[in-house]
């Protein structure tokens, strides 16, 4: 049995706790011993992305203290996972920092590459649109990039396709950014909203009932646009769907 530390991003903790709960429930169903460190906080990504990486040293130290002794760390967020993989640093405990970087996985990455999940016991009878977030796709290589002449793959899509009753609809522009971009949506609001509207338009044309993905930050951005236009399309993190499909 693997001992897995569940790393809960701060925006999920504050706004979408059901995503963390679904991640926890799914990992337990799959036989993992899950630990949720209660003293975990933000990983420091917002500060680092805004040019203040030096101010995130406390976040790094806290992360190492909370997750340094676990077999694996799993996170339902590609962007936060990538930040730890690429930027976790400790002058006091450099070996622990390196070990964490090697043991942290985004949720679908962990299910595919470590647990080798291939079957689901339940069903999810909905028409679902998949949004590929940039960090997960281009940073963690969870799915292929259209500009490369290379084999096409998608770890999130492969998992969703295995759920009985789920009709997966992948947009034609499958790797186009939604416009969230962390602080980008604050400093370039108009551009960010237009990019999000373009994404929403394609999913609505595909008549999806639910829009999903691996980064709740991107889904939060798209959900705001959907709500403002009173669209019937609902947003669900992929952890919620995978958990529902594994009874």
TrEMBL record:
Domain of life: Bacteria
Pfam families tied to this protein: CCG (PF02754)
InterPro entries recorded: Cys_rich_dom
All residue ranges annotated as the Cysteine-rich domain in the record: 4-85, 128-222
Name of the featured protein: (Fe-S)-binding protein
Organism: Flavihumibacter fluminis
């Amino acid at each position: 049995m693997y001992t897995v530390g569940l790393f809960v991003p701060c925006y999920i903790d504050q706004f979408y706790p059901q995503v963390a709960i679904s991640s926890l429930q799914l990992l337990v169903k799959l036989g993992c011993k899950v630990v949720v460190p209660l003293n975990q906080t933000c990983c420091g990504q917002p500060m680092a992305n805004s040019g203040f990486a030096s101010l995130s040293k406390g976040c790094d130290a806290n992360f190492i203290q909370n997750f340094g002794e676990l077999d694996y760390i799993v996170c339902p967020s590609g962007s936060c996972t990538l930040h730890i993989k690429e930027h976790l640093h400790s002058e006091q405990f450099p070996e622990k920092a390196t070990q964490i970087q090697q043991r942290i996985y985004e949720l679908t990455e962990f299910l595919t590459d470590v647990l080798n999940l291939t079957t689901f016991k339940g069903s999810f009878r909905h028409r679902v649109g998949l949004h590929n977030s940039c960090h997960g796709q281009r940073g963690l290589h969870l799915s292929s990039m259209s500009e490369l002449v290379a084999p096409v793959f998608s770890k999130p899509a492969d998992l969703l396709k295995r759920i009985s009753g789920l009709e997966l609809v992948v947009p034609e522009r499958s790797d186009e950014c939604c416009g969230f971009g962390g602080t980008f949506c604050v400093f370039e609001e108009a551009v960010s909203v237009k990019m999000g509207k373009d994404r929403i338009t394609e999913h609505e044309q595909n008549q999806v009932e639910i829009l999903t993905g691996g980064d709740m930050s991107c889904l939060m951005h798209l959900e705001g646009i959907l709500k403002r236009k009173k669209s019937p399309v609902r947003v669900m993190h992929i952890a919620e769907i995978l958990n529902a499909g594994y009874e």
